[in-house]
Amino acid sequence: MKKTFKLSMVMLLALTVVLAGCGNKKSESNGNAGTEGGKSEVKIGMVTDVGGVNDKSFNQSAWEGLQQMKAEKGVAVEYLQSTKADDYNTNLNKFVKGKYALTWGIGMSLADAVGSVAKQNKDAKLAIIDAEVDQPNVKSVTFAEHEGSFLVGVVAGKMTKTNKIGFVGGVKLPVIERFAAGFAAGVKAVNPNAVVTNNFTGAFDKPDLGKTAAATLYNDGADIIFQAAGGTGTGVFNEALGRAKSGQKVWVIGVDKDQSIEFPDVTLTSMVKRVDEAVKRVSQEVIDGTFKGGHETLTLKDNGVGIADTSSKTVPADVLKIVDEYKAKIISGEIKVPEK
Q1: How far is Cα 90 from Cα 92, in angstroms, rounded to an integer?
Q2: Are strands 43-47 and 35-36 parallel, antiparallel or unpaired?
Q3: Cα Rg for the chain, rounded, in angstroms?
Q4: pLDDT above 90 coverage of the chain, percent
Q5: N or C terminus: which one in the chain shows less Cβ crowding within 10 Å?
Q6: Distances (CA, A) of 285 to 22, 74, 129, 290
């Protein structure tokens, strides 16, 4: 019996040593924020604005960028969808308190929340799209939307048959006003006789408002509408699709991503804003250990904005040639595109 007891104690001691060794390895693994074998143990979180992750626009583009990071780098990614402004702080804090390596806030509406959370958690790293937050631990990325919008304005100005063109925006924020101003300037540059009518819906998550706004503009004679309204913009496409089925030829110009992929029958072109690439680039800085707070604006010169590559399917070559000419003038500084 004594032998049995001694043997049991030896086995128990050996098992304890093995388990202790396993626990140490797990701890070391969890503490490693680098990459090994193409895999990373970095966790990155993303908080949407009220437009949601399936807005067919910049929230979705940002999430696609993170999904690419997961596929290419093995990064663990997660998003939290905000249904109201009160969710912003709560959602951001979930990732920060969860020790995520980087927490993204997508959209200008999150600026105050990102600033507040960053100030209260100085060791956390945060980043935001479409706003500038002046905190040392926040990377702010904005875009020269007005420059890209100028180019799709050129397309609209050259291709309208009625000389009536519409713009449907979401909330009337500076970023949306940049879209509107650049678009109108592009139209006027090539077609002084065209009239651009703006309609700000006041929301980024109301497709019904987008549909109503588009119906009003089309009924007034517009044959092309540029939408910069997040999820609300889906309603603009739906209105155009309904009219196309009844034989009326109208166009929509998409925003943020190539929306001809989703709405091929009515998309004339899209003003592409490379939110996905911006998200990937800053996220990679966290993985590499080179992340720094600050602000950067991605322009036409940086390929941060532009028109969709698929535009040649619907836009004639001679019009695209004119677009390229104006693009060169903007990049060179010969043309300064207005922001409002």
Answers
A1: 6
A2: unpaired
A3: 25
A4: 84
A5: N
A6: 31, 15, 16, 5
Would you state the structure tokens that stand for residue 101, as one six-digit string? 């390596």
Q: What are phi and psi of 117, to 5 degrees?
A: -65, -40
Distance CA 118, CA 127 (A): 10
pLDDT for 55 equals 86
d(CA 217, CA 221): 7
Single pTM value for the model: 0.81
Give, for 241, the enclosing helix (H) or strand (E): helix 233-245
Is the pLDDT reported for residue 19 higher than 80? no
CA-to-CA distance for 148 and 271, rounded, in angstroms? 6
Residues 6+ apart with CB under 8 A from 47: 79, 80, 82, 88, 91, 92, 95, 103, 104, 105, 106, 110
Q: What is the spatial order of strands in the sheet that 251-256 belongs to?
A: 195-200, 164-169, 224-228, 251-256, 267-273, 305-307
pLDDT in tens, 75-124: 999 999 999 999 999 999 999 999 999 999 999 999 999 999 999 999 99
Residue 73, Cα to own-chain centre: how many angstroms?
20
